[in-house]
């Protein structure tokens, strides 16, 4: 039997070219690791408590991979989706291997090209190999996945956009199978157009066809499989249930073991603590007993720098908080009964006064958020019962920071089943919290609201519109629930995250300025720091200050601008430098303001006036922390890595950055010009530009878009601190 990659010409009779462009949904370089962990948890055997994933790195000689031939190389070099077209010119191939254990493996019939087996059971091989998207896991609240596209991350992290897998099916007499998938995108070779996906396996003639058209199905011959196990140096033995994924020419950043371990712990700390998951990276095993020690000895996953002492102490407190949550021996339980309000009021919280007292005593507190939802009834035969009402709930646990804590960290979690929705964490509150969504209907709702990589939820997710009714306010309030409760407990109306910015802006019609383009919605944090604190509070309360404070701006890492000149668009970034005397003066003024407010005779003022002042105080306290951190850092936020993205903003486009394709533009084209001066370097690829700056003494400019494109160009930037190792390479 001829075993090779199968390249399918298209269109053939009854077929068409489709390209899912998964890169628009999975942007984090660690997404393939997260995807594999999620799949491992989802595949847990019924009687097993803990599943394990082993991650290791190997090398093989290209000559030993007989299926990497001239034909395959030709397709690689003609692909627009392949990251490294010359990877196959090397003699050796680096392999990232991910193997799960105590799992079921992929279940079904490898050779059946249908979504059901001959006995009518789900054929997960078909979904794994050939069906991308279609929300395959969306109906099962117990599973982490939803959209059925995650496995494409394995291709995305491969320099040749290819992965292989070895599977042992626990439901089918421990049957082993081996398969390979390449995501190469649409391409033309020899006057033929080819489908985006190519497959490595054995040939199977298409049924009811006279012409020689074949499908590729997994290899099931044991002798051949044993040969491939030995070739790829897998740990899994023949007949040992589970899945092994092999990714050739993987992103080398993944081999940073210390950072990889920190990222894994950061995202999956709850599942590991709850003994649902154990992970090994080479010779280091992470489990519920050693997770905290390993975490504290590593690096901060946000900065890639070692944790500071106060960060370590706060993390230790947070892990103690999580253990308290899991014990859940609480008498101190409150409730919020939600009825589709636009705003949640504090009088909706049962025993609110007791909640405040418990919080101020730094006691663990639980609030059950009860709500109902209208979900599409697939069994309906008429319009009247098209949607069915379900009552459900989620729990939020919270605890005030220790009194000694002066830093703000993302020591909080949003959990749906086993999944951590990591981008819902906030660095804006001096409060530990976890939202724990485990009830079936609440889990299904959140699952429908999740982005493809399960890091965030949005009320504008189209899956919600398909399956639910009257959900928008509910999703927005769930997303903001910790901030809402925190504002009640502290009288803070606005809390700001100063660590990571995600500014979205474009040129105005006249081309002479910048304006925000998106209305505030659930897609954005309610903690908007672009509006002056004074204006925000004034608009909220409509009263004058008791004590008028100076203006204390949040410190900026850099200034950026966009303008149109001589029929060209220019985007600029310049380092922002602060004088030492300036910062010390701002700190002194801020501390003085706090001291003045302490001497106010509060009984002389209305509750609104006091609330306005207290809101100012809370904001300025955060500024004080910010200024002190800046001083401790040596009056600089540098070195830093600044990442810039651009995209066309079409009509009715919710997120243009996810819609970007190479067909739009590519910064590597000669039409774009770059100018970088001072203490910085730049890198660029597709729609992304990275500035690697050692200090504030730099300026950057990019041009190349025409003025006729000004209304359609949208920019965003993010920045991260770095130790400078990526700058000096």
Describe it.
With 729 residues, the chain is α+β, with helices and mostly antiparallel strands. It folds into 4 domains: 253 residues, Heat Shock Protein 90 (2-Layer Sandwich), CATH 3.30.565; 183 residues, no CATH class; 106 residues, no CATH class; 118 residues, Immunoglobulin-like, CATH 2.60.40. 26% of the residues lie in helices and 27% in strands. The protein has 16 helices and 27 strands. Strands 1, 2, 3, 4, 5, 8, 9, 10, 11 and 12 form a 10-stranded mixed sheet that branches. Strands 20, 21, 22, 23, 24, 25, 26 and 27 form an 8-stranded antiparallel sheet that branches. Strands 13, 14, 15, 16, 17, 18 and 19 form a 7-stranded mixed sheet that branches. α14 runs antiparallel to α15. The two termini are 48 Å apart.
What is the domain total for the residues?
4
Describe the largest sheet.
Answer: 10 strands, mixed
Number of strands: 27
Helix content: 25-40%
**What is the fold named in CATH at topology level of the largest domain?**
Heat Shock Protein 90
Count of helices?
Answer: 16
Low-confidence stretches: 144-148, 492-542
As a whole number of angstroms, the C-alpha radius of gyration is 27 Å
* The top level CATH class name of the largest domain: Alpha Beta
Mean pLDDT across every amino acid position: 81
| Percent strand | 25-35%
Q: How does the helix and strand content classify structurally? A: alpha+beta
CATH architecture heading of the largest domain: 2-Layer Sandwich
* Shape by Cα distribution: globular
End-to-end CA span: 48 Å
């Amino acid at each position: 039997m001829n075993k090779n990659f199968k390249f399918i010409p298209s269109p053939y009779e009854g077929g068409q070219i489709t390209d899912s462009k998964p890169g628009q949904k999975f942007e984090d370089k660690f997404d393939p690791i997260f995807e594999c962990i999620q799949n491992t948890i989802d595949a847990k055997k019924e009687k097993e408590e803990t599943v394990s994933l082993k991650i290791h790195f190997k090398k093989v000689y290209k000559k030993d991979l007989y299926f990497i031939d001239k034909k395959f190389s030709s397709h690689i070099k003609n692909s627009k989706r392949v990251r490294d077209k010359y990877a196959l010119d090397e003699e050796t191939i680096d392999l990232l291997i991910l193997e799960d254990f105590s799992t079921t493996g992929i279940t079904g019939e490898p050779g059946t090209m249908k979504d059901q087996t001959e006995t009518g059971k789900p054929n997960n091989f078909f979904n794994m190999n050939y069906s991308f998207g279609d929300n395959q896991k969306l109906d099962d609240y117990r599973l982490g996945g939803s959209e059925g596209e995650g496995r494409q991350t394995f291709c995305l992290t491969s320099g040749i956009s290819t992965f292989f897998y070895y599977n042992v099916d626990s439901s089918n007499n421990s049957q082993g199978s081996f398969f390979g998938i390449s995501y190469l995108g649409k391409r033309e070779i020899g006057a033929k157009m080819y489908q985006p996906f190519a497959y490595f396996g054995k040939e199977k003639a298409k049924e009811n066809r006279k012409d020689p058209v074949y499908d590729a199905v997994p290899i099931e011959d044991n002798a051949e499989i044993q040969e491939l196990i030995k070739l790829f140096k897998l740990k899994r033995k023949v007949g040992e249930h589970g899945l092994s994924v092999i990714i050739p020419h993987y992103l080398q950043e993944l081999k940073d073991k210390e950072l990889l371990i920190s990222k894994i712990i950061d995202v999956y700390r709850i599942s590991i603590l709850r003994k649902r998951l154990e992970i090994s990276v080479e010779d280091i095993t992470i489990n519920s007993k050693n997770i905290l020690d390993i975490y504290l000895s590593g690096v901060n996953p946000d900065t890639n720098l070692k944790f500071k002492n106060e960060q370590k102490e706060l993390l230790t407190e947070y892990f103690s908080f999580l253990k308290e949550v899991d014990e859940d021996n609480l008498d101190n339980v409150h409730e919020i009964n939600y009825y589709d309000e636009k705003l949640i009021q504090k009088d909706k919280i049962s025993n609110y006064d007791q909640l405040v007292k418990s919080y101020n005593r730094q006691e663990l507190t639980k609030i059950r958020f009860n709500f109902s939802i209208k979900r599409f009834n697939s069994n309906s035969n008429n319009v009247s019962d098209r949607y069915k009402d379900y009552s459900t709930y989620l729990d939020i646990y919270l605890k005030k920071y220790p009194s000694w804590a002066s830093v703000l960290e993302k020591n909080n979690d949003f959990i749906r089943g086993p999944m951590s929705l990591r981008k819902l964490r906030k660095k804006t509150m001096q409060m530990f919290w976890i939202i724990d969504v485990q009830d079936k209907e609440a889990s299904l709702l959140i699952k429908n609201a999740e982005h493809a990589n399960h890091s965030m939820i949005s009320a504008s997710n189209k899956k919600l519109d398909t399956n639910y009714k009257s959900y928008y306010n509910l999703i927005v309030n769930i997303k903001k629930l910790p901030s809402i409760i925190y504002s009640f407990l502290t009288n803070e109306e606005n809390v700001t995250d100063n660590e990571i910015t995600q500014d979205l802006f474009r040129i105005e019609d006249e081309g002479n300025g910048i304006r925000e383009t998106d209305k505030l919605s659930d897609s954005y944090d309610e903690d908007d720091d672009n509006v002056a604190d004074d204006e925000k509070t004034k608009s909220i309360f409509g009263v004058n200050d008791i004590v008028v404070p100076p203006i204390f701006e949040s410190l900026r890492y850099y200034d950026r601008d966009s303008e149109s000149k001589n029929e060209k668009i220019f985007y600029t970034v310049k380092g922002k430098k602060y004088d030492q005397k300036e910062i010390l003066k701002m700190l002194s003024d801020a501390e003085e303001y706090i001291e003045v407010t302490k001497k106010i005779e509060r009984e002389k003022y209305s509750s609104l006036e006091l609330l306005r002042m207290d809101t100012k105080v809370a904001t300025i306290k955060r500024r004080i922390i910010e200024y002190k951190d800046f001083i401790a850092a040596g009056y600089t936020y540098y070195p830093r890595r600044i990442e810039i993205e651009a995209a066309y903003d079409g009509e009715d486009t919710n997120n243009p950055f996810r819609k970007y394709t190479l067909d739009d533009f590519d910064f590597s084209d000669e039409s774009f010009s770059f100018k970088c001066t001072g203490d910085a370097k730049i890198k660029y690829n597709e729609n992304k530009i990275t500035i690697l700056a050692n200090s504030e003494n730099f300026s950057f400019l990019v041009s190349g878009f025409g003025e006729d494109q000004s209304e359609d160009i949208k920019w965003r930037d993010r920045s991260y601190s770095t130790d400078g190792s990526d700058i000096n390479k």
